[in-house]
Amino acid sequence: MSDRTQPQPQxxxxxxxxxxxxxxxxxxxxxALKLSANENPYGCSPAATAAFQAAAKDxxxxxxxxxxxxxxxxxxxxxxxxxxxxCGVGSDxxxxxxxxxxxxxxxxxxxxxxxxxxxxxxxxxxxxxxxxVDEADRRIDVDAILRAVTERTRIVFLANPxxxxxxxxxxxxxxxLIAGLxxxxxxxxxxxxxxxxxxxxxxADLVDAYPNVVMxxxxxxxxxxxxxxxxxxxxQRPIIDVLARLRQPFNLSNAQMAAAEAAMRDTEFTAxxxxxxxxxxxxxxxxxxQMGVACDESHANFVLARLPDAExxxxxxxxxxxxxxxxxxxxxxHLPEALRITVGDEAGCRRVIAAISEFMAGERAAR
Length: 367
Ligand SMILES: *Cc1c(COP(=O)(O)O)cnc(C)c1O
Prior knowledge:
Elements: E1 33-34, H1 46-54, H2 68-78, E2 85-88, H3 90-102, E3 108-112, H4 118-125, E4 129-133, H5 142-148, E5 153-159, H6 171-180, E6 186-190, H7 203-209, E7 213-218, E8 231-234, H8 237-246, H9 254-265, H10 267-290, E9 302-306, H11 310-322, E10 325-326, E11 328-329, E12 338-342, H12 346-366
Helix pairs in contact: 1-9, 2-9, 3-4, 3-8, 5-6, 10-12
The structure holds pyridoxal-5'-phosphate.
Protein backbone atom coordinates (compact mmCIF):
# COMPACT_ATOMS: atom_id res chain seq x y z
CA MET A 1 0.00 0.00 0.00
CA SER A 2 1.47 3.34 -0.95
CA ASP A 3 1.98 6.02 1.67
CA ARG A 4 -1.10 8.27 1.54
CA THR A 5 -0.15 10.28 4.62
CA GLN A 6 2.08 12.80 2.88
CA PRO A 7 2.84 14.15 -0.60
CA GLN A 8 5.05 11.77 -2.59
CA PRO A 9 7.44 13.16 -5.24
CA GLN A 10 7.53 11.52 -8.65
CA UNK A 11 10.05 8.68 -9.11
CA UNK A 12 13.60 9.87 -9.69
CA UNK A 13 13.29 13.25 -8.04
CA UNK A 14 14.79 12.18 -4.71
CA UNK A 15 17.74 10.64 -6.63
CA UNK A 16 18.84 14.11 -7.70
CA UNK A 17 22.00 15.31 -6.01
CA UNK A 18 21.64 19.10 -5.97
CA UNK A 19 23.85 20.90 -8.46
CA UNK A 20 26.79 22.65 -6.85
CA UNK A 21 27.90 25.73 -8.75
CA UNK A 22 31.35 27.26 -8.86
CA UNK A 23 31.92 29.17 -5.64
CA UNK A 24 32.10 32.92 -5.78
CA UNK A 25 33.06 33.93 -2.24
CA UNK A 26 36.07 33.35 -0.07
CA UNK A 27 35.56 32.30 3.55
CA UNK A 28 37.34 35.40 4.84
CA UNK A 29 35.39 37.75 2.59
CA UNK A 30 37.38 40.19 0.49
CA UNK A 31 37.56 40.64 -3.26
CA ALA A 32 38.23 37.28 -4.90
CA LEU A 33 39.44 36.49 -8.38
CA LYS A 34 36.68 34.12 -9.51
CA LEU A 35 37.89 31.56 -12.02
CA SER A 36 35.42 28.85 -11.04
CA ALA A 37 32.40 29.22 -13.33
CA ASN A 38 33.80 29.79 -16.85
CA GLU A 39 32.46 33.32 -16.92
CA ASN A 40 33.63 35.88 -19.45
CA PRO A 41 36.40 38.00 -17.87
CA TYR A 42 35.54 40.89 -20.21
CA GLY A 43 31.91 41.10 -19.08
CA CYS A 44 29.41 41.35 -21.92
CA SER A 45 28.98 43.47 -25.02
CA PRO A 46 28.27 47.16 -24.15
CA ALA A 47 25.43 46.92 -26.68
CA ALA A 48 23.86 44.16 -24.57
CA THR A 49 24.04 46.29 -21.42
CA ALA A 50 22.46 49.22 -23.28
CA ALA A 51 19.66 47.04 -24.64
CA PHE A 52 19.01 45.64 -21.17
CA GLN A 53 18.77 49.13 -19.72
CA ALA A 54 16.48 50.31 -22.51
CA ALA A 55 14.15 47.38 -21.75
CA ALA A 56 13.62 48.79 -18.26
CA LYS A 57 11.05 51.30 -19.55
CA ASP A 58 8.57 48.55 -20.57
CA UNK A 59 8.53 46.29 -17.55
CA UNK A 60 4.73 46.35 -17.46
CA UNK A 61 4.53 44.69 -20.90
CA UNK A 62 4.47 40.96 -21.44
CA UNK A 63 7.24 39.75 -23.73
CA UNK A 64 6.63 38.35 -27.21
CA UNK A 65 5.99 34.63 -27.06
CA UNK A 66 7.70 33.78 -30.34
CA UNK A 67 11.20 35.20 -29.65
CA UNK A 68 11.16 36.39 -33.28
CA UNK A 69 13.86 39.11 -33.28
CA UNK A 70 16.20 37.02 -31.16
CA UNK A 71 15.78 33.94 -33.35
CA UNK A 72 16.38 36.04 -36.45
CA UNK A 73 19.57 37.48 -34.94
CA UNK A 74 20.83 33.98 -34.13
CA UNK A 75 19.84 32.81 -37.60
CA UNK A 76 21.64 35.72 -39.28
CA UNK A 77 24.88 35.31 -37.37
CA UNK A 78 25.03 31.52 -37.48
CA UNK A 79 23.49 31.00 -40.92
CA UNK A 80 20.54 29.03 -39.54
CA UNK A 81 16.81 28.78 -40.24
CA UNK A 82 15.14 30.87 -37.46
CA UNK A 83 12.09 28.59 -37.60
CA UNK A 84 14.18 25.74 -36.28
CA UNK A 85 15.64 27.63 -33.32
CA UNK A 86 14.18 27.34 -29.81
CA CYS A 87 15.24 29.69 -27.00
CA GLY A 88 15.33 28.84 -23.34
CA VAL A 89 16.16 30.09 -19.88
CA GLY A 90 19.80 29.13 -20.32
CA SER A 91 20.63 26.21 -22.54
CA ASP A 92 19.83 24.19 -19.43
CA UNK A 93 16.16 24.77 -20.16
CA UNK A 94 16.51 23.50 -23.72
CA UNK A 95 18.28 20.41 -22.39
CA UNK A 96 15.39 20.00 -19.96
CA UNK A 97 12.84 20.16 -22.80
CA UNK A 98 14.72 17.36 -24.57
CA UNK A 99 14.72 15.19 -21.44
CA UNK A 100 11.01 15.84 -20.79
CA UNK A 101 10.07 15.18 -24.40
CA UNK A 102 12.03 12.02 -25.07
CA UNK A 103 12.72 10.16 -21.81
CA UNK A 104 10.67 8.90 -18.88
CA UNK A 105 10.48 6.10 -16.32
CA UNK A 106 12.15 2.92 -17.59
CA UNK A 107 14.21 4.78 -20.20
CA UNK A 108 17.97 5.22 -20.18
CA UNK A 109 19.88 8.44 -20.75
CA UNK A 110 23.57 8.12 -21.54
CA UNK A 111 26.12 10.52 -20.13
CA UNK A 112 29.87 10.11 -19.81
CA UNK A 113 32.15 9.73 -16.80
CA UNK A 114 33.34 13.31 -16.68
CA UNK A 115 30.18 14.69 -18.31
CA UNK A 116 28.38 17.88 -17.27
CA UNK A 117 26.59 17.45 -13.92
CA UNK A 118 23.25 18.69 -15.29
CA UNK A 119 22.74 15.62 -17.51
CA UNK A 120 22.06 13.04 -14.75
CA UNK A 121 19.97 15.65 -12.91
CA UNK A 122 17.78 16.11 -16.00
CA UNK A 123 17.46 12.34 -16.45
CA UNK A 124 16.39 11.77 -12.85
CA UNK A 125 13.97 14.70 -13.01
CA UNK A 126 11.94 12.88 -15.67
CA UNK A 127 12.20 9.51 -13.92
CA UNK A 128 14.69 8.09 -16.42
CA UNK A 129 17.87 6.22 -15.51
CA UNK A 130 21.19 7.93 -16.20
CA UNK A 131 23.80 5.51 -17.55
CA UNK A 132 27.38 6.68 -17.16
CA VAL A 133 29.86 5.53 -19.80
CA ASP A 134 33.61 5.50 -19.18
CA GLU A 135 35.88 7.94 -20.98
CA ALA A 136 39.37 7.16 -22.30
CA ASP A 137 41.96 9.49 -20.74
CA ARG A 138 39.41 12.25 -20.23
CA ARG A 139 38.11 11.93 -23.77
CA ILE A 140 34.61 10.85 -24.71
CA ASP A 141 34.81 7.29 -26.06
CA VAL A 142 32.43 6.81 -28.98
CA ASP A 143 32.78 3.02 -29.03
CA ALA A 144 32.04 2.78 -25.31
CA ILE A 145 28.89 4.85 -25.81
CA LEU A 146 27.75 2.66 -28.68
CA ARG A 147 28.35 -0.47 -26.58
CA ALA A 148 26.20 1.00 -23.79
CA VAL A 149 23.18 1.61 -26.03
CA THR A 150 20.22 -0.68 -25.29
CA GLU A 151 16.64 -0.80 -26.57
CA ARG A 152 15.82 1.54 -23.66
CA THR A 153 18.30 4.27 -24.59
CA ARG A 154 16.49 7.47 -25.56
CA ILE A 155 19.04 10.25 -25.24
CA VAL A 156 22.82 10.64 -25.36
CA PHE A 157 24.06 13.88 -23.80
CA LEU A 158 27.53 15.13 -24.62
CA ALA A 159 29.25 18.47 -24.51
CA ASN A 160 31.77 19.22 -27.25
CA PRO A 161 34.12 20.76 -26.19
CA UNK A 162 33.53 18.90 -22.94
CA UNK A 163 33.27 20.43 -19.48
CA UNK A 164 35.32 20.03 -17.26
CA UNK A 165 37.92 18.23 -19.38
CA UNK A 166 38.11 20.71 -22.27
CA UNK A 167 38.72 17.87 -24.73
CA UNK A 168 36.91 17.60 -28.04
CA UNK A 169 35.63 14.94 -30.42
CA UNK A 170 36.22 15.34 -34.17
CA UNK A 171 33.44 15.61 -36.70
CA UNK A 172 34.35 12.10 -37.89
CA UNK A 173 33.91 10.68 -34.38
CA UNK A 174 30.56 12.41 -34.03
CA UNK A 175 29.32 11.11 -37.36
CA UNK A 176 30.37 7.59 -36.38
CA LEU A 177 28.49 7.97 -33.10
CA ILE A 178 25.31 9.24 -34.73
CA ALA A 179 25.45 6.59 -37.45
CA GLY A 180 25.64 3.90 -34.75
CA LEU A 181 22.70 5.17 -32.69
CA UNK A 182 19.16 3.89 -33.22
CA UNK A 183 17.05 6.47 -35.05
CA UNK A 184 14.81 6.98 -32.03
CA UNK A 185 17.72 7.95 -29.79
CA UNK A 186 18.37 11.70 -29.61
CA UNK A 187 21.96 12.89 -29.61
CA UNK A 188 22.31 16.19 -27.76
CA UNK A 189 25.38 18.08 -28.92
CA UNK A 190 25.86 20.67 -26.17
CA UNK A 191 27.99 23.39 -27.71
CA UNK A 192 28.28 25.71 -24.70
CA UNK A 193 31.98 26.22 -25.54
CA UNK A 194 31.91 25.88 -29.35
CA UNK A 195 32.82 29.53 -29.89
CA UNK A 196 36.16 28.97 -28.14
CA UNK A 197 37.06 25.96 -30.30
CA UNK A 198 38.18 25.53 -33.87
CA UNK A 199 36.14 22.43 -34.71
CA UNK A 200 36.75 20.49 -37.91
CA UNK A 201 32.98 20.29 -38.46
CA UNK A 202 29.91 22.49 -38.14
CA UNK A 203 27.37 21.36 -35.54
CA ALA A 204 24.50 22.75 -37.63
CA ASP A 205 25.56 20.44 -40.47
CA LEU A 206 25.09 17.47 -38.15
CA VAL A 207 21.59 18.74 -37.36
CA ASP A 208 20.81 19.12 -41.06
CA ALA A 209 22.10 15.64 -41.82
CA TYR A 210 20.40 13.75 -39.00
CA PRO A 211 16.81 14.02 -37.73
CA ASN A 212 17.78 12.86 -34.22
CA VAL A 213 20.42 15.50 -33.40
CA VAL A 214 19.82 18.56 -31.23
CA MET A 215 22.53 21.19 -30.86
CA UNK A 216 22.51 23.70 -28.03
CA UNK A 217 24.38 26.96 -27.47
CA UNK A 218 24.39 29.46 -24.65
CA UNK A 219 24.74 33.18 -24.02
CA UNK A 220 26.37 32.40 -20.66
CA UNK A 221 29.93 31.84 -21.84
CA UNK A 222 31.36 33.76 -24.80
CA UNK A 223 28.57 36.35 -24.69
CA UNK A 224 29.15 36.96 -20.98
CA UNK A 225 25.47 36.84 -20.00
CA UNK A 226 25.43 33.99 -17.47
CA UNK A 227 23.51 36.17 -15.04
CA UNK A 228 20.68 36.73 -17.53
CA UNK A 229 19.98 33.05 -18.35
CA UNK A 230 19.54 32.64 -22.12
CA UNK A 231 20.35 29.70 -24.36
CA UNK A 232 19.08 28.14 -27.54
CA UNK A 233 18.76 24.92 -29.46
CA UNK A 234 18.62 23.93 -33.12
CA UNK A 235 17.17 20.78 -34.63
CA GLN A 236 15.06 19.57 -37.51
CA ARG A 237 11.46 20.71 -37.54
CA PRO A 238 9.79 17.62 -36.01
CA ILE A 239 11.93 17.89 -32.86
CA ILE A 240 11.47 21.66 -32.60
CA ASP A 241 7.68 21.18 -32.89
CA VAL A 242 7.82 18.80 -29.92
CA LEU A 243 10.08 20.97 -27.76
CA ALA A 244 7.99 24.08 -28.48
CA ARG A 245 5.00 22.42 -26.80
CA LEU A 246 6.94 22.16 -23.54
CA ARG A 247 8.17 25.72 -23.55
CA GLN A 248 6.23 28.19 -21.43
CA PRO A 249 4.98 31.00 -23.67
CA PHE A 250 6.71 33.71 -21.63
CA ASN A 251 9.88 31.87 -20.63
CA LEU A 252 12.13 34.76 -21.69
CA SER A 253 11.64 38.35 -20.57
CA ASN A 254 11.91 41.39 -22.83
CA ALA A 255 15.16 42.37 -21.13
CA GLN A 256 16.68 38.93 -21.68
CA MET A 257 15.74 38.88 -25.36
CA ALA A 258 16.88 42.44 -26.04
CA ALA A 259 20.26 41.90 -24.40
CA ALA A 260 20.77 38.56 -26.12
CA GLU A 261 19.90 39.94 -29.54
CA ALA A 262 22.38 42.80 -29.11
CA ALA A 263 25.05 40.40 -27.82
CA MET A 264 24.57 38.05 -30.77
CA ARG A 265 24.95 40.87 -33.29
CA ASP A 266 28.11 42.25 -31.64
CA THR A 267 30.45 39.93 -33.52
CA GLU A 268 33.41 42.21 -32.86
CA PHE A 269 33.07 41.62 -29.12
CA THR A 270 32.78 37.84 -29.49
CA ALA A 271 35.73 37.69 -31.90
CA UNK A 272 37.85 39.67 -29.43
CA UNK A 273 36.89 37.37 -26.54
CA UNK A 274 37.63 34.24 -28.58
CA UNK A 275 41.04 35.54 -29.69
CA UNK A 276 42.10 36.60 -26.20
CA UNK A 277 40.87 33.31 -24.78
CA UNK A 278 42.87 31.28 -27.30
CA UNK A 279 46.03 33.28 -26.63
CA UNK A 280 45.79 33.12 -22.84
CA UNK A 281 44.62 29.51 -22.78
CA UNK A 282 47.77 28.51 -24.67
CA UNK A 283 49.91 30.53 -22.28
CA UNK A 284 48.23 29.01 -19.19
CA UNK A 285 48.76 25.48 -20.43
CA UNK A 286 52.40 26.09 -21.31
CA UNK A 287 53.06 27.58 -17.90
CA UNK A 288 51.37 24.69 -16.12
CA UNK A 289 53.19 22.03 -18.10
CA GLN A 290 56.53 23.79 -17.54
CA MET A 291 56.05 23.65 -13.78
CA GLY A 292 55.14 19.96 -13.87
CA VAL A 293 51.35 20.27 -13.74
CA ALA A 294 49.74 18.07 -16.41
CA CYS A 295 47.19 19.74 -18.66
CA ASP A 296 45.43 18.43 -21.77
CA GLU A 297 44.97 20.76 -24.69
CA SER A 298 41.72 22.62 -24.01
CA HIS A 299 39.20 23.72 -26.63
CA ALA A 300 37.12 25.78 -24.19
CA ASN A 301 37.53 28.83 -21.92
CA PHE A 302 39.12 26.90 -19.09
CA VAL A 303 42.02 24.53 -18.55
CA LEU A 304 42.06 21.40 -16.41
CA ALA A 305 45.19 21.41 -14.26
CA ARG A 306 46.10 17.93 -13.05
CA LEU A 307 48.18 17.84 -9.89
CA PRO A 308 50.17 14.70 -9.01
CA ASP A 309 47.36 13.40 -6.76
CA ALA A 310 44.08 14.30 -5.06
CA GLU A 311 45.80 15.37 -1.85
CA UNK A 312 47.92 17.94 -3.66
CA UNK A 313 44.94 19.13 -5.68
CA UNK A 314 43.15 19.89 -2.41
CA UNK A 315 46.25 21.58 -1.00
CA UNK A 316 46.68 23.65 -4.16
CA UNK A 317 43.01 24.67 -3.99
CA UNK A 318 43.57 25.87 -0.40
CA UNK A 319 46.74 27.74 -1.41
CA UNK A 320 44.86 29.48 -4.23
CA UNK A 321 42.09 30.52 -1.86
CA UNK A 322 44.68 31.91 0.51
CA UNK A 323 45.89 33.96 -2.45
CA UNK A 324 42.33 35.19 -3.08
CA UNK A 325 41.69 32.99 -6.13
CA UNK A 326 38.70 30.66 -6.52
CA UNK A 327 38.97 27.80 -9.02
CA UNK A 328 36.75 24.76 -9.44
CA UNK A 329 37.44 21.59 -7.54
CA UNK A 330 36.17 18.82 -9.83
CA UNK A 331 36.28 15.82 -7.49
CA UNK A 332 32.53 15.33 -8.08
CA UNK A 333 33.37 14.86 -11.79
CA HIS A 334 35.62 11.92 -10.89
CA LEU A 335 38.68 14.11 -11.29
CA PRO A 336 39.89 14.49 -7.67
CA GLU A 337 43.47 15.23 -8.76
CA ALA A 338 42.40 18.12 -10.94
CA LEU A 339 41.35 21.77 -10.68
CA ARG A 340 39.42 23.49 -13.44
CA ILE A 341 40.65 27.02 -14.01
CA THR A 342 38.70 29.51 -16.12
CA VAL A 343 40.85 31.48 -18.55
CA GLY A 344 40.65 34.98 -17.07
CA ASP A 345 42.02 38.20 -18.49
CA GLU A 346 45.79 38.55 -18.71
CA ALA A 347 46.20 39.86 -15.15
CA GLY A 348 44.02 37.06 -13.80
CA CYS A 349 45.99 34.40 -15.70
CA ARG A 350 49.29 35.77 -14.43
CA ARG A 351 47.99 35.84 -10.89
CA VAL A 352 46.78 32.23 -10.90
CA ILE A 353 50.02 30.99 -12.46
CA ALA A 354 52.10 32.88 -9.90
CA ALA A 355 50.08 31.29 -7.07
CA ILE A 356 50.33 27.76 -8.47
CA SER A 357 54.03 28.22 -9.15
CA GLU A 358 54.55 29.22 -5.53
CA PHE A 359 52.55 26.20 -4.38
CA MET A 360 54.63 23.84 -6.55
CA ALA A 361 57.87 25.36 -5.29
CA GLY A 362 56.70 24.76 -1.73
CA GLU A 363 55.87 21.16 -2.59
CA ARG A 364 59.31 20.57 -4.08
CA ALA A 365 60.97 22.05 -1.00
CA ALA A 366 58.88 19.86 1.32
CA ARG A 367 59.76 16.62 -0.46
C1 LIG B 1 27.99 26.41 -18.84
C2 LIG B 1 27.44 25.23 -19.55
C3 LIG B 1 26.19 25.29 -20.14
C4 LIG B 1 25.41 26.57 -20.15
O1 LIG B 1 24.33 26.52 -19.34
P1 LIG B 1 23.33 27.76 -19.34
O2 LIG B 1 22.10 27.16 -18.76
O3 LIG B 1 23.13 28.15 -20.77
O4 LIG B 1 23.95 28.83 -18.54
C5 LIG B 1 25.71 24.18 -20.80
N1 LIG B 1 26.45 23.06 -20.89
C6 LIG B 1 27.68 22.97 -20.36
C7 LIG B 1 28.46 21.74 -20.54
C8 LIG B 1 28.20 24.05 -19.66
O5 LIG B 1 29.39 23.95 -19.09
